[in-house]
Specification:
By secondary structure, the protein is α/β, with parallel strands linked by helices. Helices cover 45% and strands 15% of the residues. Strands 3-2-1-4-5-6-7 form a 7-stranded parallel β-sheet, sandwiched between helices. Helix 1 packs across helix 8 and helix 3 runs parallel beside helix 4. The longest helix is centred in the middle third of the chain and has 29 residues.
């Protein structure tokens, strides 16, 4: 299937490893001109070399630098037409009220304000072309909260609501905003939350209907479709990619 994104400029956040790296690879394979961003250029450089992308250093929590990042990508590759906001989750805490106010505020900056600032910066270029694809990588926890992940549960739900609100406002401009909700995808974070790789994989066999962890590439394929011209009438949705894990409709 031709996704219609060859030559389009894509900016993928958190692309040094895991889901972000898989998404960047998928978009590059589809012919997009890919910019990847993360806090560590040292980790980004080999990814950029491998997939033919351009690397940019950016900390999503640094809200004042969002416009500068988009301007740098635009100067190097052209206006951003595809934006994938992807941010790692805050650390777990067994006590739902055990996080400090500073930790709550940091999680809010990273998971809610960070993506919104990037969207604000990219919108003028998208509107000028009457084309934009924005996808946020959320979590299945917005449907069924995960124990010990109070910060992630709360703030990812807020970002989902923000995307739904923006989707309705921007649909007439040819810009779509969607969210993917990964279940247990085989990444370092899932291994850490699951007590190690072996325990996480063993738990998946008994707890996930698909009887395995998902692969980053499987989630990346869903993201790539939502970024495509084929998905032009899909906006404001939250797509579960979880192997049947979630119980709620």
């Amino acid at each position: 299937m031709d996704l219609g994104i060859e030559g389009r400029v894509a900016l993928v956040m958190g692309a040094s490893k895991g889901i972000g790296r898989a998404v960047a690879t998928e978009l590059a394979n589809e012919g997009a001109r890919v910019a990847i961003a993360a806090r560590s250029l040292e980790r980004l450089a080999p990814v950029a070399d491998e997939i033919g992308a351009m690397a940019f250093r950016h900390d999503t929590a640094d809200l004042d630098r969002s416009t500068a990042l988009v301007e740098s990508v635009t100067a190097a590759l052209g206006p951003v037409e595809i934006l994938v906001t992807n941010t790692g989750g805050p650390p777990p805490n067994a006590d739902p009220l055990g996080n400090t106010r500073e930790e709550w505020e940091e999680a809010y900056r990273t998971l809610v304000l960070g993506p919104l600032e990037l969207i604000r910066a990219a919108l003028p270029g998208m509107r000028a072309r009457n084309f934009g694809r924005i996808v946020n990588v959320g979590s299945w926890s917005v449907r069924e909260p995960i124990q010990a992940l109070m910060l992630s549960n709360s703030h990812r739900a807020a970002t989902l609501a923000a995307f739904k609100t923006l989707a309705r406002d921007l649909a007439g401009d040819g810009i779509t905003l969607n969210t993917v909700l990964p279940g247990r995808i085989a990444t370092d974070r899932i291994y850490a939350l699951g007590g190690g790789r072996e325990r996480a994989e063993a738990g998946a066999v008994t707890e996930i209907p698909a009887r395995r962890l998902g692969q980053p590439g499987e989630l990346a394929a869903a993201v790539a479709f939502l970024c495509s011209t084929r998905a032009s009438y899909i906006t404001g949705v939250a797509l579960l990619v979880d192997g049947g894990l979630t119980h709620l409709v």
